[in-house]
Amino acid sequence: MGHTTDNVVVELDATTWLDEHGDALFRYALIRVRDSSVAEDLVQDTLLAAMTAAHSFQGASSERTWLIGILRHKLLDFFRRTARERNLEQDWANSPVGGSQAFDEQGRWKAALGEWGSPEKSLEKTEFWRVFNGCIDASPEQLRTPFALRELEGLDTNAVIRTLDISSKNNLWVMLSRARQRIRNCLQSQWFEEN
Fold first, then answer.
1. pLDDT digit string, tens, across residues 42-86
2. Does some domain include residue 181?
3. What CATH number did the domain enclosing 137 receive?
4. Which listed residue, 10, 95, 124, 149, has the most CB atoms within 10 A of its CB?
5. Are residues 103 and 69 part of one domain?
6. End of a domain among 46, 66, 85?
7. Are residue 107 and residue 182 in the same domain, yes or no?
8. For residue 58, how many other CB atoms are within 10 A of its CB?
9. What is the tally of structural domains in the chain?
10. Which of 63, 85, 107 is the last residue of a domain?
């Protein structure tokens, strides 16, 4: 699979993609969907789409970056589809209330944070990321999905609202605030108090 771009031939060998990029693609998908079988399906869909679109690869980025870009689109499609299949806001209405009790009238945390140590050293530790991912996993799907799209994928507010079919920015902000609070509380108890 080669084509010419600005007098440079860009060669793609789809037979090596799974060996060379499969693990990275799988990890990228898994941290966002939290289900290994769904992550595997997304990687497979990504590789199939890449084979179909190989003629459009222009060599402006690495193969891995190009494949991750395709995977990001597959993830967005997945989140759109699952949002249509179940109404996240309705699920949220039936879940326990968290959120506003943790803040004072000025919007500051009521409870002071414990000593977190050196953030730079914590971020360098692989163990921190294991705990962080576990904290994300422990969040309900109706909070985890918007959080993953906004904070991990970097989508803007309007894109998250469209993707998940959320009725308003305020509803999204409440979901994100509650997701962040759950993750913060989890990190506080599972990481910072133990280190």
1. 999 999 999 888 888 888 888 899 999 999 999 988 888 877 766
2. yes
3. 1.10.10.10
4. 149
5. no
6. 85
7. yes
8. 12
9. 2
10. 85
What CA–CA distance (Å, rounded) separates 159 from 1?
A: 34
Residue listed under structure tokens 């944070």: 113
79 lies in the same domain as 46: yes
Question: Do 75 and 121 fall within a single domain?
Answer: no
Write out the two tokens for 133. Answer: 């991912």
Residue 4: beta bridge partners? Answer: 9
Q: How far, CA to CA in Å, does 42 sit from each of 136, 138, 145? A: 20, 22, 16
Look up residue 20 and give its two tokens.
Answer: 């060379």
- Tell the residue number behind the tokens 């693609």, with chain if given: 25
Burial code of 80-112, b = ≥16 C-beta within 10 A, e = fewer?
A: eebbeeeebbeebeeeeebeeeeeeeeeeeeee
Query: Which residue stretches of the chain are H helix?
Result: 17-33, 36-53, 63-85, 88-93, 119-124, 126-138, 141-147, 157-164, 169-187
Q: Give the pLDDT confidence of 103-138 residue by residue, as tens digits.
A: 666 666 677 666 666 666 656 667 777 888 888 888
Q: Which two tokens stand for residue 31?
A: 């941290």
**Domain containing residue 129:** 96-192
Task: Supply the pTM of this predicted model.
Answer: 0.53
Contacts within 8 Å (CB) and 24+ apart, 68-74: 68/24, 68/25, 68/28, 70/46, 71/25, 71/28, 71/29, 71/42, 71/43, 71/46, 72/153, 73/49, 74/42, 74/45, 74/46, 74/49
